[in-house]
Amino acid sequence: MGGGVQFDLIHEIDYLNYLFGEPLALEKQYRRVSHLEIDSCDYAHYSATYQKFSANVTLNYFRRDAKRTLEIVRENDTLLLNFIEGNIINLMTGQTLLNIDKEGLPLSYLNQMKYFLSAAKSKKHPMNSLEGIAAYNQTDLMILKGKNIIVTGSEGLLGKAIVTDIQKEGGIAICLDISHETAPELHRYKVDLTHQEETENILIKLFEAYHHIDGLVNNAYPRTKDWGTKMEEVALSSFRQNVDWQLNSVFHLIQLISNHMIEFNQGSVVNIASIYGIVGTILHYMTIQI
After folding, report:
1. pLDDT tens digits for the chain (290 residues)?
2. Adjacent-strand bridge partners of 25
3. CA quadruple 14, 20, 25, 28: dihedral sign
4. How many CB atoms lie within 10 A of CB 215?
5. Which of 254, 251, 241, 243 is CA-nearest to residue 285?
6. Which residues contact 81 (CB under 8 A, 6 or more apart)?
7. Is 101 helix (H, G, I), strand (E, B) or coil?
8. What is the strand order of the sheet 96-99 is part of?
9. What's 277's DSSP letter?
């Protein structure tokens, strides 16, 4: 599932925008062409049209030899910018026009941080913003197309946002929650995941209905009525109940789903946690998150 080469190797797009600005027109292609065991795109090609020239960018995960270059083809010569070697060479004459000391290359990262901090402090818009490269990564590919993804706690604020994003990316969000009624045509199923038998029964139904489950987002948040009680006042029975609901029931669900995913040799599990597991004051939650 992952991000894909079009997101991970975005610096080349930054360079293109910085040197030439936004193109008048853009064609792009995203593909999975290698034998890498990933679900995201491992190859991307962009063809950008400017008023007096065109530019092409090719990105991939699978090239064995290291290469990061930029060629500028001019009327009388060709310039080669080698980002790894840190130099610019005129390919017609063989002349090195610029040669950066490799030991000084790490300073570029420090300069980048200074630039962004300065932009943030002065509230200036940085040159390589997400908005600036948005056109390059707008795609009809839909990285979750054909994927069946279970979302627990789908009726909560975070759950609804997760469901919406899955649907936007072409996936089917299978919504499991105790607070809505079952509606298979809407991919909604009412279930209490703290009950072992209910969990096992609903998964049997889902495996039969959807044939394959490609993802699980553990987002449910079951808790007892005394949630938030001070540590010194928490009853041992309540503590045990919360640990069982929020930890053991999640483990049980992951165990059942993972066996199915292993059978199909694919799948991803995402567990939603919170910073309050470290800095919070709710005893049950801190224990479970840690």
Report:
1. 456 888 888 888 888 888 888 888 888 888 888 888 887 889 999 999 999 999 999 999 999 999 999 999 999 999 999 988 889 999 999 999 998 877 766 777 788 788 888 888 888 877 665 555 555 665 555 678 889 999 999 999 899 999 999 998 889 999 999 999 999 999 999 999 999 999 999 999 999 999 999 999 999 988 878 777 777 787 888 888 888 888 899 999 999 999 999 988 889 999 987 766 555 555 555 555 54
2. 49
3. negative
4. 23
5. 243
6. 69, 70, 71, 72, 87, 88
7. coil
8. 69-73, 78-82, 87-90, 96-99
9. H
DSSP class of residue 263? H
How many whole angstroms separate alpha carbon 49 and alpha carbon 25? 5
- Are residues 234 and 284 in contact, defined by beta-carbon separation less than 8 angstroms? yes
Provide the whole-model pTM.
0.53
The pairing of beta strand 87-90 with beta strand 96-99: antiparallel
Q: In the structure encoding, which two tokens stand for residue 128, read together?
A: 């390589």
Question: Which H or E run contains 165?
Answer: helix 157-168
Spatial contact of 96 and 41, defined as CB atoms under 8 Å apart: no
As a whole number of Å, the CA-based R_g of the chain is 25
Looking up tokens 């290291």 gives 66
User: Got the DSSP string for 126-164?
Assistant: PSS-TGGGHHHH--S--TTTT-EEEEETTTSHHHHHHHH
